[in-house]
Specification:
heterotrimer, A alpha/beta, B mainly alpha, C mainly alpha, A: alpha/beta, Rossmann fold, 2 domains, 13 helices, C: mainly alpha, two-stranded antiparallel ribbon, about 65% helix
């Protein structure tokens, strides 16, 4: 938080803890609410506060840490620091490195603990206490959906981070929520043909599924895509998020007669379940006369790093990969790598891009007034952010762009070279009718919070 | 049939961990009469002994390889562990076997932690009510896990098992089944054998050494043993240390199965108390038997065939067993009458 | 009306307490805590802790599963919003009723055992509820995704009188929206009622009976009393308090997640009660406020704020001091809390309230000796 309030050293000594609280935190309380606001947290003064809410603890904490790096990088670039990252390559030229609408960008961060309750609480704190005008984050769809609902109520725009459930822009879509990341349905469309080619049409799949919205929709989408190939599906097994030891769920697979294990797990859960599955020797097994295979439909660099050897040769899908060769991807990898000494993961890219897209939408709308910003984002067609030409569809606030099929690399040339892009599903092929998931966006009436 | 055997094996390796933790908890309770809510934290500290050991032997030198550049334009850094620079190939072997080797570090460290904990804090609570013992050890558990979080961060840190012990072995072939009918991860089998070994060692120690005999006498009647001029307190302190070592070893060997993180202790705590209660408060054989029993029950409850009869049973089987045992047979499987009932 | 009478001392305490609660937005301002979200939590968790204290403080039964009732209260309230009406009163009533029934069942079984066995039983029941809410009860609880309002909710009562509006509705009381400050004042009023009721319980013969269970259950049963119905009543009352608190959480934010039933949440209310002072009326409230303050404000301190705070420390030491102290604030707030808790249990078993009394006694010197011992935890074993 930026805070230009001055106070004397003596005052601090005298006031002790209460002093620091009064001088450090209280001015915000007084400035907020002092003016009549036409919408929630209308920025006054020369800075604007964004709220970054990500899992710093819990099953998706690794993702959250990378998200935080990306957010801080985005703020730096918006304020004119660093090499500007994706601002020069972005098709919209409104961003000049002078903040948003001339206001310097400040931010607050919070830990959503990979839990819907805690995430919503933290988002609420950012809106009520810190005066955040936009919230972004969430590495779990459960968290994202909960926060998106809150933001709808409070009239604050929510730029979803990593959330892959169909529900986020399907049955739980909201007027104030926007998702750049792809979804499980698109993963199924992209991954299906590749799996069919690699493993044949006559397979029996066994699903282990994280027991919440994302797991359910991914399971459903994968079953749909693979059954279209002619695969059979065993009754899926639901596992709790953060279970840690998945061995008791993997053991029954061995004698089930299935020959493909589909792990609908993410983050540390995905790392644990795939590592444990490989420890069970699944790779060396045969079933129905075929080699047993493992599929991890949603995979990230961070998971690949955590899983090490176990990820080799495993197929999955990704929203983006740092080894893509377009100018924007190269620029982002360079900018991120120079600052943090490691390449960005797909979650870093999506988080960074979401902040830029919000800033750009505000610039184009000429105001922070949410209904105008929403209008600027809806149906917006852009390019130069690493995913090729992309559309923010107005009907469900989902981005449509190419989806990448990746595979764990067999012989990595360096410690970061873990996944290789083996296929691309075009934007047209992954575009679907928004009506299939139902849901309503709701109104864009701003709230006074 | 093969499926049932596989699930049984799975229950045994889970049960091994439960039994080891519950054994330590029971040692403390049986000797000192203290309900130790920080026992899960001791398991977690043991796991972090393995992490620290690996950190120590993989302290590395960073050199820059100018021939390779990263995507962001800097030269690629090549990290070489010091152990490798100093001992050559032996260093690599050392790193490969770091998890089993870290037992050597864990034993003295956990013994010390246990003794310091007992002398520094727990001994002041012998005369206080059990509720206060629960509270102070609960607080201690929070402090310990937060210290670990401050040092090692909130994320799990994965520990590789020795490359020779990776992968699965064909257990079925050993007992005359068709090849490949029953394979099981080698490390999980080792974990089971290891826990069985530690349990046997603890029982032998209590049974066949003079020290153990005195301790057992003290467990039965502390006052009389004290009147005989034996410093039972000192022995009990050592027993606390021993309990910490048992928990710590369980933690060390568990790291390749599940990357340790700071709240792992809390995750195991509830479970281990349930195990102890099911076995019977203060009964060592009870703790061991209940550990394996609950491990096996949990494993079987996760099978789809069972879940289709009673949905959700895999989630609650442990607690359900505890509730039923407590209500029907409050002394647990092997408990003595009157223990903690009043 | 004897029902509403209080002793002069209790009436004074209630009046003072009411003053403190109502003026909360003013006196929390210097601490940066005067935003509605946090003040609502202050009020709600105070209710939770007061209720917990009726069981633990009076009877000495240490429940490690009270969060289950909080969760049940939340789920009931959200369902009341979804099916019946957005008005808060039916939600509160239903939540108290359902969590009371739930507590009756769990209490009936758990109270068959005492001491640590009771604690483990409550813990096991709560974990079962949590795990079930998370998995097979998903149709009722919406699992990990959390139970939320949707646009398609039937809300039969509301929709009988008015058209479905655009967007999600918010909870209300006779048409007054309960969000932000109005939400806080609603919670505050409920807190005062809950506090008053706790005072009545403490002062009643029933309360004396419960204290009897705590100090010596054996003697109580020798005198021909069957103590279990009394303990069970206390258990149910405290479960209803938890349900009330859970319902208020849903009123201020209509979402119910399974996490709030986890045993760590039960552990939190134990911490609150012990920190503040077991068996006292004000203690649990203080404990709840302290912990919620830590969780929300203390946890947001970063090195920048610390650096300014330690401005007076000379340069060579400055960075070290900041580096060390930063381990105890921000993300390390739980470390401070843990240390504080251990300190309280070891040296100040009566919690903050005992500390206050001891300081008070220091000033009075020759006044009556402090009755600290009466406040010691003496569980039923």
């Amino acid at each position: 938080m930026t805070n230009s309030h001055n106070f004397s050293r003596r005052g601090v000594l005298k006031g002790g803890l209460a002093g620091i609280l009064a001088t450090g935190v209280a001015p915000l309380m007084f400035t907020r609410g002092a003016y009549a606001q036409e919408f929630c947290n209308a920025p006054s003064g020369d800075s604007v506060t964004l709220g970054f809410n990500m899992p710093l603890t819990g099953a998706y904490a690794d993702e959250g840490a990378d998200q935080q790096r990306a957010y801080e990088l985005a703020v730096e670039h918006l304020n004119g620091g660093g090499d500007g990252g994706l601002i020069p390559t972005f098709s919209s030229k409104t961003l000049k490195g002078s903040g948003i609408l001339g206001k310097k960008v400040a931010f607050v961060t919070g830990d959503d603990q990979t839990k819907a309750d805690a995430g919503r609480d933290s988002a609420r704190r950012m809106i009520e206490r810190d005066g955040a005008v936009m919230i972004t984050g969430g590495s779990s769809s459960a968290v994202a959906i909960a926060e998106q609902g809150l933001c709808q109520e409070m009239g604050v725009i929510y730029m979803a981070g990593l959330t892959h459930s169909n529900d986020t822009t399907g049955k739980d879509k909201k007027k104030y929520g926007f998702r750049h990341f792809f979804n499980a349905y698109q993963s199924g469309i992209a991954l299906g043909p590749v799996l069919g080619e690699a493993y044949g049409k006559d397979r029996v799949a066994y699903h282990l599924t994280a027991d919440y919205t994302w797991g359910w929709t991914q399971e459903e989408s994968m079953i749909k895509a693979t059954e279209a190939l002619g695969w059979k599906t065993m009754p899926p097994v639901r596992t709790p998020v953060g279970a840690g030891d998945f061995s008791q769920y993997i053991t029954p697979f061995l004698n089930s007669g299935a020959d493909v294990l589909v792990l609908n797990h993410y983050g540390f859960d995905g790392v644990n379940s795939i590592t444990q599955a490989v420890q069970f020797g699944l790779r060396d097994r045969q079933a129905n006369g075929k080699n047993v295979e493992i599929v991890l439909p949603l995979v990230s660099d961070l998971m690949a790093k955590g899983a090490g050897e176990a990820i080799k040769g495993v197929y999955g899908t990704a929203n983006w990969d740092w080894q893509l060769t377009d100018e924007a991807s190269k620029a982002f990898t360079k900018s991120f790598g120079a600052k943090y000494g490691q390449p960005p993961s797909q979650i870093a890219q999506t988080s960074y891009v979401q902040v830029l897209l919000y800033a750009d939408a505000v610039e184009r709308a000429g105001t922070f007034y949410p209904p105008e910003v929403i209008k600027a984002l809806e149906g917006y067609e852009f390019d130069g952010l690493g995913n090729g030409p992309t559309l923010y569809r107005a009907a469900d606030h989902q981005c449509f762009k190419d989806v990448y099929v990746v595979k764990g690399k067999d012989a990595p040339s360096n410690p970061y070279d873990l996944l290789e892009v083996v296929g691309t599903a075009s934007r047209d092929s992954v575009t679907y009718d928004p009506a299939i998931f139902g849901g309503e966006l709701g109104p864009d009436t701003p709230a006074k919070c | 049939m093969d499926a049932i055997l596989a699930q049984l094996l799975n229950g045994l390796d889970k049960g091994g961990a439960y039994a080891l933790i519950a054994l330590g908890l029971t040692l403390v309770f049986g000797t000192l009469g203290v309900v130790n809510f920080a026992h899960g934290a001791l398991f977690m500290l043991g796991a972090f002994c393995a992490v620290s050991f690996r950190y120590l032997i993989t302290l590395e030198t960073v050199t820059v390889d100018p021939t390779q550049t990263t995507a962001w334009g800097t030269a690629l850094e090549v990290r070489t562990p010091l152990a490798q620079t100093w001992f050559g190939d032996w260093g690599a072997v050392l790193i490969d076997w770091s998890v089993p080797l870290s037992i050597l570090l864990a034993i003295p460290v956990m013994l010390l932690v246990g003794i310091v904990m007992e002398r520094g804090l727990i001994k002041h609570f012998y005369k206080r009510p059990h509720a206060e013992q629960i509270l102070v050890t609960f607080g201690l558990a929070i402090v310990l896990q937060e210290i670990v979080k401050a040092i090692f961060g909130p994320n799990p840190i994965s520990q590789a098992m020795p490359s020779a012990l990776r992968g699965a072995t064909d257990v079925g072939a050993l007992i005359g089944l068709a090849p490949g009918a029953l394979t099981y991860p080698l490390w999980r089998l080792i974990y089971f054998l290891f826990s069985a070994g530690v349990i046997a060692a603890v029982f032998a120690f209590l049974r066949f050494t003079t020290f153990g005999m005195v301790v057992r006498a003290g467990m039965a009647d502390r006052e009389t043993v004290g009147l005989l001029g034996i410093n039972i307190d000192r022995r009990f302190t050592i027993m606390f240390g021993l309990a910490a070592v048992v928990a710590g070893l369980a933690g060390v060997m568990y790291t390749p199965l599940l990357p340790p993180n700071y709240h792992q202790g809390m995750d195991f705590l509830v479970l281990s108390f349930v195990v102890v209660v099911v076995g019977g408060m203060g009964s060592l054989p009870g703790a061991v038997a209940a550990g394996f029993l609950l491990g096996i029950l949990q494993s079987f409850a996760s099978m789809n065939q069972i879940k289709s009869i009673i949905p959700g049973i895999d989630q609650i089987i442990i607690y359900l067993t505890a509730v039923v045992i407590l209500l029907v047979r409050p002394r647990g499987l092997f408990g003595r009458r009157g223990m903690m009932e009043n | 009306m004897a029902l509403f009478q209080l002793s002069r001392r209790d009436a004074l305490i209630l009046a003072l307490f009411a003053l403190v609660v109502v003026t909360m937005p003013v006196w929390t301002a210097p601490f940066g805590a005067n935003y509605p979200g946090l003040m609502q939590k202050f009020a709600i968790y105070a209710i939770f802790a007061i209720g917990f204290n009726i069981l633990f403080g009076l009877t000495g039964y240490l429940s490690f599963g009270h969060a289950a009732f909080l969760g049940v209260g939340s789920y009931t309230a959200v369902w009341s919003f979804k099916l019946l009406t957005m008005d808060a009163l039916p939600a509160l009533l239903l939540a108290v009723l359902v969590s009371g029934l739930f507590a009756l069942v769990i209490g009936f079984l758990s109270l068959r055992r005492s001491g640590i066995y009771f604690s483990i039983l409550t813990l096991a029941f709560a974990q079962m509820s949590y795990n079930l809410a998370y998995s097979v009860l998903t149709p009722i609880t919406n699992g990990e995704t959390s139970l939320q309002l949707t646009m398609q909710d039937p809300r039969v009562i509301d929709l009988a009188f008015s058209e479905r509006g655009v967007g999600l509705p918010t909870a209300s009381l006779f048409g007054v929206t309960l969000s932000g400050l109005s939400g806080f004042y609603f919670c505050a009023v409920v807190l005062l009622i809950a506090f008053f009721f706790a005072q009545k319980v403490f002062a009643s013969p029933f309360g004396m009976m419960l204290r009897g269970i705590k100090s010596n259950q054996m003697r109580m049963s020798y005198t021909g009393f069957n103590t279990r119905p009394y303990a069970l009543t206390a258990f149910v009352i405290s479960g209803m308090y938890a349900g009330l608190a859970g319902a208020l959480l849903a009123v201020t934010d209509p979402l119910a997640g399974a996490e709030r039933m986890q045993w760590t949440a039960s552990g939190e209310v134990v911490l609150m009660t012990i920190l503040g002072g077991v068996g006292t009326l004000i203690g649990p409230v203080m404990g709840a406020w302290l912990i919620k303050y830590f969780e929300n404000i203390f946890s947001s301190f970063n090195e920048g704020i610390l650096s300014r705070f330690f401005d007076f420390v000379p340069e060579p030491l400055h960075d070290t001091v900041v580096a060390i102290s930063s381990k105890f604030v921000g993300e390390g707030w739980q470390l401070t809390l843990g240390l504080l808790f251990v300190f309280v249990v070891v040296f100040l078993p009566g919690g903050i309230m005992e500390g206050v009394r001891r300081i008070g006694a220091l000033f009075r010197r020759r006044g009556s000796p402090p009755k600290a011992d009466a406040m010691r935890v003496q569980p039923a074993e």
